[in-house]
Specification:
The chain is mainly α and 87 residues long. The chain has 5 helices and no strands. It has one domain (2-84): 434 Repressor (Amino-terminal Domain) (Orthogonal Bundle).
Length: 87
């Protein structure tokens, strides 16, 4: 039962990571390009996209700025992914 709860609690992080990845790929951007633009390490971006990091508001702002994409739209896209369980 504990794994089930943990898995559920990671779903929003996975959904946000998928939304970020989708946006990055739509722009034909590499993880390295995103990490350079956001001033974050590439492996950090990998962890975010895989739902392994619970990022802060400021980090989300840096990522959205580097993607030239609204934070609110990233969150909306994550909610849509979460509702459709496209993880």
């Amino acid at each position: 039962m504990r794994q089930s709860k943990q898995r559920q609690s990671n779903q929003p992080l996975k959904a946000l990571g998928a939304a970020i990845r989708n946006c990055r790929l739509d722009q034909l951007m590499t993880q390295q390009q995103l990490s350079d633009g956001a001033h974050l390490h590439r492996t950090y971006i990998t962890d975010v996209e895989n739902g392994l990091r619970n990022i802060s508001y400021l980090t989300l702002q840096r990522i959205s700025f580097a993607l030239n994409f609204k934070m609110s739209q990233l969150i909306l896209n994550a909610e849509i992914i979460l509702l459709h369980e496209e993880l």
